[in-house]
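[recover] target loaded
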């Protein structure tokens, strides 16, 4: 069950919401929509602004559904290792007719659209607030047809974070156990100084 009050949700929950949503929209349809998900195991618990992927799936259902074949929405998420950080690539693509040229140009400009597609620009804004200025989101059309939305999310590399934490812990330990008389006041002197 979706909690609409939550600010973020895990990638696992987001993709589950998308699959459940598309199952429900397909009830009674001749060609029920299909949602395919491929997410790296290490990204399952990654946090996104709530309803990020669901908004993209809803957009595909609204604009890419055709009466002669089932709509297919494919969601993929993978890590692209880089020095000092991890770049996460999340892609949502469908098999519809793609973005109209003017709409695609306006979405890629990053500006608030004058009419329509407010959900997509809102996703851009919320992700940029959560992930910072290096977050990027692109809107393109696949050569074979269909809309493609890609998000590039920079995350600190876990190994680098562990090294930094270990470094700080070592420094803290050094300060705590530094013998008196090596540039640091002994505890009694320090207490006297603090006490005025």
């Amino acid at each position: 069950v979706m909690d609409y009050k939550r600010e973020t949700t895990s990638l696992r929950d987001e993709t589950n919401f998308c699959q459940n949503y598309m199952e429900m929209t397909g009830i009674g349809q001749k060609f029920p929509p299909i949602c395919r998900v491929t997410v790296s195991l290490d990204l399952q618990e990654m946090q996104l602004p709530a309803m990020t992927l669901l908004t993209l799936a809803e957009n595909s259902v609204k604009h890419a559904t055709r009466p002669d074949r089932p709509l297919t929405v494919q969601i993929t998420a993978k890590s692209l290792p880089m020095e000092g950080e991890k770049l996460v690539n999340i892609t949502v693509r469908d098999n519809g007719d793609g973005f109209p040229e003017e709409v695609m140009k306006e979405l890629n400009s990053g500006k608030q659209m004058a009419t329509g597609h407010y959900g997509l620009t809102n996703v851009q804004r919320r992700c940029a607030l959560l992930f910072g200025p290096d977050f990027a989101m692109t809107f393109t059309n696949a050569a074979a047809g269909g809309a493609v939305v890609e998000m590039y999310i920079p995350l600190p590399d876990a190994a680098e974070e562990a090294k930094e934490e270990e470094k700080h812990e070592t420094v803290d330990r050094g300060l705590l156990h530094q013998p008196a008389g090596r540039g640091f006041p002994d505890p009694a002197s320090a207490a006297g100084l603090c006490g005025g």
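[recover] notes: The chain has six helices and seven strands.
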